[in-house]
Amino acid sequence: MSDHIKITKAVGTWSVRAGGAVLGESSNALELAEGDYPPVIYFPRGDIAMAFLDRTDHTSHCPHKGDAVYYSVVTKSRTLENAVWSYEAPKEAMARIKDHLAFYPLDEITVEQI
């Protein structure tokens, strides 16, 4: 694993909401800390209501984690484009985040410890 990336079990139970709907809740979330960036909570895919997410064609590449795929969140009032990402085949050193989803900290998305 890259020395500047640390993956640990997120303490407690975490929830993610968008557009007034609870998208998921997990006591098995992971916290990824990378350099000076704020920590990111990664939710196990099985703890997220995937019916609210639509996969997009957008991708990105991180030299440390690998290739990310993106999802949009569909709420009652709007679609939050590319608001969620996942490393479906991460680099070996990042294998813990496979099958996990992370959410951008947008005004319409709330990730919090409950």
Automatic annotation (TrEMBL):
Coiled-coil portions: none
Source organism: Sulfitobacter porphyrae
Superkingdom of origin organism: Bacteria
InterPro entries: DUF427, DUF427_sf
Pfam families, alphabetized: NTP_transf_9
Protein name: DUF427 domain-containing protein
Location of the DUF427 domain: 15-105
